[in-house]
Task: inverse folding
């Protein structure tokens, strides 16, 4: 097939002008179409996705308790630490989270290493959250929805931390029903899973320590000692 | 549009088309249902660690102090105006990427936002559109490539800009290349406009990340590894379409958990 002659001929100035007009016209038309689409989009369509289900209520309760008893400037570090530990043990499956965070290294760990690790892991979580809650004030937790997900029948509870300064922070809680009641097994902040990040962090420490779990245990111990020294 | 710009644009489009065609054959959705952690591919880790260390140093001595000062000196209202103005300037890129991703509704919202905020919102200084239910939603060329089935490629740390991936690095470069502000600055020989804009953009972005970054520095054993994981997760959540303004249970799709 021979190409159309118009493609071979050099375009005249007139033709370019005509082309530009066509481009502008089509662009305007496109804008109009897009605008009509935009205006037909419903502003809010995702309200009330079982925000009153048991997992949603559990998260709301946990959030309220934590924000009420852990924030504020007039409690001692020790009191705050004790409260964090209690809330953690009562509401989180620390064993499952710790095991996940160690990844495949869990299988290689000896019984005594596992025990040491679990203690150090819980201490680290307590330290981290005690410090975090020291700086908190005026935040509120707003639960949006709860969805059941496969394969374990866990629930994902979507929520937001509403702050006085700055935009809301999106939090997602993974809740599992256990014999002892509902337990948090992961928290995702703006798409970042705390367990997943912890696991990557720990794995890197172990790999850089020559593949030994003792390297991680030493690192966790150092951190604990440093925190204890800082407290004075 | 000047001739060179037009050429560049066509080149980008051709390239995009080529990638999309080659990618469609091997595109596959994320069907990872295994009980295992997401491994981040990082074959140039030593180089990345070096650049990360450099960025971290620069951040501690210069960028973070300036960002903190910026937060301290300017009230929230003014900083929000700066953010709205910056976002408005980037609207054409967002609309373009929405269209390339076939998200006609999003492109419409972004266009309407641009029209409303540029006029009623006084050159974008006030985000009037979001009060009318037209919420801001970002889109970039890295995401567009992902939508077309291009995999992320390995992890890279770009000097000053920070964590990225091969795909998203190409995306950032492409978005910058076709950015109307850059084209205008380049064609009128006033590149300072572009550099100033980029500087303010970076400062505004960094000023909103003071707490998360301080927190991660304080609470990770290996800051590099924690940041690599967090960035990768945040980026995949964004590409899966879980923006911060979206209140749906987004992680429902992820089965990787304790």
Result:
């Amino acid at each position: 097939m021979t190409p159309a002659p118009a493609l071979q001929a050099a375009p005249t100035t007139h033709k370019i002008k005509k082309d530009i007009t066509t481009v502008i016209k089509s662009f305007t038309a496109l804008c109009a179409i897009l605008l009509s689409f935009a205006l037909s989009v419903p502003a809010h369509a995702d309200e009330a996705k079982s925000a009153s289900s048991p997992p949603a209520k559990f998260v709301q309760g946990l959030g309220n308790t934590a924000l009420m008893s852990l924030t504020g400037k007039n409690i001692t570090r020790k009191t705050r630490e004790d409260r964090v530990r209690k809330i953690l043990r009562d509401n989180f499956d620390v064993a499952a989270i710790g095991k996940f965070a160690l990844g495949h290294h869990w299988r290689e760990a000896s019984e005594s290493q596992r025990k040491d690790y679990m203690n150090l892991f819980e201490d680290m979580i307590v330290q981290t959250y005690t410090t975090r809650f020291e700086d908190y004030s005026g935040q509120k937790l707003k639960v949006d929805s709860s969805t059941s997900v496969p394969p374990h029948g866990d629930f994902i509870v979507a929520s937001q931390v509403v702050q006085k300064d700055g935009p809301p922070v999106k939090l997602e809680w993974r809740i599992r029903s256990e014999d002892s009641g509902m337990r948090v097994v992961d928290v995702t902040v703006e798409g970042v899973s705390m367990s997943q990040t912890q696991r990557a962090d720990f794995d890197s420490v172990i790999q850089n320590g020559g593949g030994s779990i003792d390297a991680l245990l030493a690192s966790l111990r150092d951190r604990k000692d440093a925190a204890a020294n800082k407290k004075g | 549009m000047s001739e060179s710009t037009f050429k560049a644009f066509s080149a980008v489009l051709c390239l995009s088309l080529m990638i999309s065609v080659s990618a469609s054959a091997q595109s596959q959705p994320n069907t990872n249902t295994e009980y295992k952690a997401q491994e981040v591919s990082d074959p140039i880790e030593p180089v990345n660690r070096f650049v990360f260390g450099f960025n971290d140093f620069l951040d501690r001595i210069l960028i973070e102090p300036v960002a903190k000062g910026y937060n301290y000196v300017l009230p929230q209202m003014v900083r929000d105006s700066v953010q709205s103005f910056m976002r408005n300037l980037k609207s054409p890129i967002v609309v373009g990427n929405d269209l390339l991703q076939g998200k006609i509704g999003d492109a419409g919202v972004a266009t309407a936002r641009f029209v409303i905020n540029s006029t009623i919102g006084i050159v974008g200084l006030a985000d009037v559109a979001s009060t009318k239910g037209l919420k801001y939603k970002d889109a970039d060329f890295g995401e567009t490539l992902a939508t077309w089935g291009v995999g992320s490629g390995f992890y890279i740390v770009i000097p000053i800009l920070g964590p990225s991936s091969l795909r998203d690095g190409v995306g950032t470069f492409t978005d910058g290349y076709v950015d109307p502000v850059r084209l205008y600055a380049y064609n009128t020989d006033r590149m300072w406009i572009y550099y100033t804009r980029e500087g303010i953009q970076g400062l505004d972005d960094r000023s909103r990340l003071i707490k998360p970054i301080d927190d991660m520095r304080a609470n990770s054993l290996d800051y590099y590894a924690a940041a690599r994981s967090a960035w990768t997760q945040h980026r995949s959540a964004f590409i899966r379409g879980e923006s911060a303004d979206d209140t749906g249970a987004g992680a429902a799709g992820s089965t990787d958990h304790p």
